[in-house]
Each structure stands twice: as structure tokens, then as C-alpha cells.
Design brief:
Blueprint: H1 2-19, H2 31-38, H3 42-55, E1 58-61, E2 65-68, H4 81-85, H5 90-111, H6 114-129, H7 133-149, H8 154-170, H9 187-200, H10 204-222
Antiparallel strand pairs: 1-2
Helix pairs in contact: 1-3, 1-8, 5-7, 5-8, 5-9, 5-10, 6-7, 6-9, 9-10
């Protein structure tokens, strides 16, 4: 799952920069420190650097380090994830997920390959074996990314990637964990497996409903008073 690892590193790095309240031309920590902080390998970090540099989000100087760019690489109307994060709230991001991701699950049920199904099954199995919340959240992110990839629709995948980067920037950390590790009856396990089953059976309606129910449960965890 090399692609998922690379995409995860990019999302992690975008979120780190956005959360760090860096100013333009501020220097980022050294690569070794970033790898330890983000829990990623150096090769994945450098691939993420290359993408952010092409966007103008960072710039690098040999011998001096890596610095935060002005984000102009995408043109004058481009808004970075950090810009969007300042204009929204966790509730808005959660609502956006409820609008977008059930539809993505519906599309995945119609277009997923056998390989997609096998990778989703692997994620479900690994999620039940997770020994920390950080480990579970990484697997959870892979699951949702795989559902989106299974749509085989580039614009939809791109839209999801932007929303996911925003989610990781402002929403992660809102969940209040009552245990140190995921419990065997954690609701997401069965919900993910139901989505997987619907996708495998090409049941687009069940996949859409399953994803909506799952995200509603996540929303209730985040905002129990709603």
C-alpha cells in the first residue's frame, strides 16, 4: 500500500504546517525531527516535500533547510488548506463529510475492483488489531481513502483528498477518548465491515446508507450534545 503511505505523509505534512501557525519564510524542523513527529519515513516525507514545493507551499534552500512558502504556486485565487481551516469549523467539516462520503461509497460499490475490495478487507482486519488510537486512526484514514480510490474518478478523489487534509488539520483532536486503546466493540469496526460488504456485493444503496450511518456515529462521538 505504498500509494496510501505517500498520500498519508502528504496529508500529515499539510496538517502539521497548517496547525503550526507558521508564517511565510519560517523554517520547518529538520527532516529527522519531522519524520519522528509525523510518524512517517524519510522517503515519504521527501515525496510530500516535492508536491508541496510544486504548489508553492514550501521552498527549499540547500544547506539551510525547508521554509514555508506563500502558496502562490496555484495562482492568485488558490486557497491553501491553512487558509480554509481559518474560515471553517469542525462541525462544518463533519457536515461536508456527511454530504460527500456516502456518495463516494455509492460510487465505490459500482466501480471497485477485486484489489480494492481486498485492500479494504485488509484495513478492516488491521483496525481490529490496532493497539493505540494513533494506529487505529491511521488505518481508518486508509479505509476512507481506499473507498474513495475505488470510485476510480479523479475529480472525486481530488475533492476527497482536499477535504481529508482539512479534516486532519482542524478536526483530529476533537474526539475525547475514554480508553487508551480502541475497545473490541468500537462501533467503527462493524460499520466499516458493513460498508466493505456492501461494496463487495455491488450494493450501492447499502454502501451509501452504511457510510452515512458510520459518519453519523462519528459525528455523535465528536459532538455528543448535537
Amino acid at each position: 500500500m505504498k500509494r496510501e503511505n505517500s498520500e498519508g505523509a502528504l496529508i500529515q505534512l499539510r496538517a502539521y504546517i497548517a496547525q503550526g501557525e507558521f508564517e511565510t519564510n519560517d523554517r520547518l524542523p529538520a527532516e529527522r525531527e519531522l519524520c519522528e513527529t509525523l510518524g512517517i519515513g524519510r522517503s515519504e516525507l521527501r515525496k510530500a516535500f516535492a508536491i508541496l514545493e510544486s504548489e508553492g507551499a514550501i521552498w527549499r534552500h540547500v544547506g539551510r533547510g525547508t521554509f514555508v512558502g506563500n502558496g502562490k504556486g496555484q495562482g492568485p485565487d488558490y486557497l491553501s488548506i491553512a487558509d480554509i481551516a481559518k474560515r471553517t469549523t469542525p462541525r462544518e467539516v463533519m457536515h461536508a463529510r456527511l454530504v460527500l462520503e456516502p456518495m463516494l461509497a455509492r460510487e465505490a460499490a459500482m466501480h471497485a475492483t477485486a484489489e480494492h475490495v481486498e485492500q479494504l478487507r485488509d484495513c478492516c482486519a488491521k483496525a481490529r488489531e490496532a493497539t493505540t488510537w494513533r494506529q487505529y486512526e491511521s488505518i481508518d484514514n486508509q479505509f476512507h481513502s481506499l473507498v474513495t480510490e475505488a470510485t476510480q474518478n479523479t475529480p472525486l478523489i481530488t475533492m476527497y483528498e482536499q477535504l481529508n487534509a482539512l479534516r486532519r488539520t482542524i478536526v483530529w483532536g476533537c474526539l475525547h477518548r475514554h480508553t487508551e486503546t480502541p475497545t473490541p466493540d468500537h462501533h467503527s469496526f462493524a460499520e466499516h465491515e458493513a460498508i466493505l460488504e456492501a461494496i463487495e456485493q455491488r450494493n450501492s444503496e447499502a454502501a451509501q446508507i452504511g457510510m452515512k450511518r458510520h459518519l453519523q456515529a462519528v459525528r455523535d462521538d465528536m459532538f455528543p450534545s448535537d
